[in-house]
Design goal:
The protein is α+β, with helices and mostly antiparallel strands. Helix 3 crosses helix 4, helix 7 packs across helix 8 and helix 12 packs across helix 13. It is built from 13 helices and 12 strands. The chain folds into 2 domains: about 210 residues, Roll (Endonuclease I-creI), CATH 3.10.28.10; about 60 residues, no CATH class. The mean pLDDT is about 90. The protein has a 4-stranded antiparallel beta sheet. It is elongated, with a radius of gyration of 23 Å.
């Protein structure tokens, strides 16, 4: 940029520099494999969601990759591929990049990796996210904190898309190790009239909040419409389609119990007796109560 405006009279440098920045459409570095990235000039809804996704599950990394080269990486890891599919759309819309989602070789998680100095700089400089471990420092970026309710809500949506979950009791839950991040998300939701309940923090699980979905319809505004959490939330508010409910409440890495098993066992035994169902499904009465309540919300 300097070579373009060195001929200008003294004092004009800053003025012309910002004029060039304002009309810039794409940014690219000198690295051989560098891809053009859309130049972002203003905060957008998608950018606020991306910031939320990073605050929840993202990592920034920089390292030497050779004598004269460096590695710049933004990575987001999640066990739910649907969350990353949403992130991929936000990144494509914002930066013009199409990112391949990969399965981890080490566990059941999925990886979303962007090797771009430009994208890393946006997250680092624009939002002040730190390189490396961010657990003790991550919170809502100042630029979003000082912006409109819409951008704050979109930031919270990005966070909850990755770190939120909907349980069998019909609660939207948010568990995180960063107290700062939990407090800022809670504040955004409370300012929207959503009632929040906090659980006692633990060293292992961190900080936790929840809200009863049936008493807080606005929680739908805090979840991506393509996400499993949005579909579960909509079901708790307006009822479930049977086939969709079976897909939504499938086996997970931490639970072998499923809605399908409950319905099948209930039909075979021809009973609604919770003790009998619990015994045959090898779960406790409390779990059967949850599945019974869920079953009653299905529209047959």
């Amino acid at each position: 940029m300097n070579s373009l405006i060195d001929f200008l009279p003294s004092g004009r440098y800053e003025i012309e520099k910002w004029k060039i920045i304002e009309i810039t459409e794409f940014l690219i570095t000198g690295a051989p494999k560098s891809k053009p990235v859309k130049a972002i000039h203003n905060l957008t809804s998608e950018l606020a969601k991306i910031a939320g996704a990073h605050a929840a599950d993202g990592t920034l990394a920089m390292a030497k990759s050779g004598k004269t080269s460096n590695m710049y990486r933004w990575a987001v890891t999640d066990g739910n591929v649907f969350s990353l599919l949403s992130l991929r759309e936000w990144v494509k819309s914002t930066f013009g990049l199409t990112i391949e989602i990969k399965k981890s070789l080490y566990d059941n998680s999925f990886l979303f990796i962007v090797n771009s100095k430009v994208v890393l700089r946006y997250l680092q400089k624009f939002f002040d996210f730190k390189v490396g471990n961010k657990t003790s420092t991550v919170s809502i970026p100042d630029i979003i904190k000082k912006s409109s309710c819409e951008f704050k809500r979109n930031f919270a949506l990005g966070v909850l898309t990755f770190d939120g979950c909907v349980d069998l009791d019909g609660n939207l839950r948010f568990n995180v190790k960063s107290k700062k991040l939990l407090e800022c998300v809670a504040e955004i939701m409370q300012s929207d009239g959503i009632e929040i309940t906090f659980s006692k923090p633990s060293k292992k699980r961190g900080w936790d909040l929840r809200c009863k979905i049936t008493e807080n319809k606005k929680v739908l505004n805090y979840l991506d419409k393509n996400s499993i959490n949005w579909k579960k939330t909509y079901g708790f508010l307006y009822g479930f389609d049977k086939n969709e409910a079976i897909q939504l409440f499938r086996e997970t890495p931490i639970s072998k119990m499923t809605l399908s098993k409950f319905i099948e066992t209930k039909k075979i035994l021809n009973t609604s007796d919770k003790k009998i169902l619990a015994k045959n499904l090898h779960v406790d009465i409390r779990t059967i109560r949850k599945y019974s309540n869920l079953f009653n919300m299905i529209k047959f």
